[in-house]
Please model this.
Amino acid sequence: MTLLYIILTIVILLIILVLIIPLKVKVDISIKNTKNTTEEDLNTKNKIEIYILKFIKIKTIDVKQKDKIGENEYNQNIKLKEEKNVLSDISKTASNFINYEKRNSLLISKDEIIKLKESMTFEEFFLIFGFNLKDPIINAYVISILNSIINIYISKNVDKFTLENTAYKTYISNKIIDLRFYSIINFKLVNTIIIILKIIIKLRKVVNKNGKTTSN
Model:
């Protein structure tokens, strides 16, 4: 019985530690449009890593990358991929997302989003975002709006950021999209575990274009 009590005590302590110590999520994402994309860009490994107890990695999510292709085919694809097609893809993606949300219940409610926001802190936050919409006036407006949004968010949530490890840059790029984002985000698991479990359960079923269900 003594051994059983010891094991039970250890399990309870571990559960308490997991709930008290924040869930750590590392996000390392780089997005570039195909025009002027280099072979080095194609080999960039995008990933999201999830840790419990700050150092025990429990999950790595690799963001699918474009496969390395032959030089001739690569050059042909770059010529065929015009800027208008990139913008069209973005528009279609947004449209599909909106239509999906109309057909299905939201992944999480507004109240749950607020709870997640309140429970998160940024251990590190680095954002470099370049874009080029081919119109100087539109570019100027967009970059001003982006800077204002980021500044307002950081200033209103300054207690959630480690300022010496926080930096961002927006600029006019020679590409339509050139995004580099790296962040370490901590979540108070004790306040968000129910929400996280609900998200995992809902993500188990994904509806594709044919109406079939697949595991995610």
Summary: The chain has a mean pLDDT of 75. The CA atoms of residues 175 and 206 lie 32 Å apart. The longest helix spans residues 83-103.
